Amino acid sequence: MKYLTFLVFLFTLSNLYSQDFELYEKESFVFENDTLNYRILKPLNYNPSQKYPVHLVLHGSGERGNDNSSQLTHGGVLFLKKENREKYNSWVLFPQCSTNDRWANSTSDSWDAKFEDTITKPNKSLQLVIRLMDQFIEKKQVDKQRIYVSGLSMGGMGTFEILYRRPNMFAAATPICGNGSTAFASLYAKKVSIWVFHGSDDNVVSPKHSLNMVSAIIEAGGSPKLTLYENVGHNSWDYAFDDKNYLKWIYSKVK
Prior knowledge:
eight-stranded mixed β-sheet; alpha/beta; 255 residues; Rossmann fold
C-alpha cells in the first residue's frame, strides 16, 4: 500500500512539473536557413515598463534534439520554484542544441575533449544562441548589467566558449562539470564573475578540466569561485542547483 501511495505521489509530482513547464513559452529563432528552438520563461508579474535580468541556460549532450522540450530536464524546475521567481525575477532562456551539433568547438563532449587554441567560427547552434542573445538583450525590458549564463556538461563547455566570444555580455557565469580552452581565459577573466562546479568522481568529464580552467582564469588575473563535490560523479548539477547560495550568488552580480 505504501508503495502504491509513493507511485501516486511521483505521478502527481511529474504531472505538476509537466504543467508548470508550459510556463516556458515555446519559441524559435531563425537566421537565414537555420533555426534555433528555445523555451523562455517570462518574469513573474511581467511589467513591460520594467527592466529584468536575463539568465541563459545551456543543457548537456543528452538533451539535444528538436522537440523544444528536453532542454528543460535539468534546471527547468529550479527557475519555476515560487521563492526563486520572487527573489530572482528574470527572463530565463533555455535554447536547444540540434542533434548532430554541440555548443562548444570541441572534438567530443566527454573525458578526452580537445579544444581549438585559435578563435574560429562557432558551431552553428552556439552561433544561433549568440545571435539570439545579441538581439534579445537589446529589448528595453532587459537589464544589460545583469546578464547571466549557466551550463552543465556539454553546456558547461558552451559556457566557457560563449564567455570568450562575448566577454562583455555577462555579469556572471556558472559552468558545471564542463571543460574549455584555457587559451582564451584572459579574454574574460577580469570581466565576469565565475563559479565553477564539478564532482570529484566524475568519470564522464574529468574534474581536472575545471581545475585547469580555474587555474587559467587565475593566471589571467581573474578571481573565480570553485566547488568540488566529494564522492559525486557527473551529475554535479543536482548539487549545484540544490545549493541555497547558487542563485543568490549569481543574481548578486552586476557588471
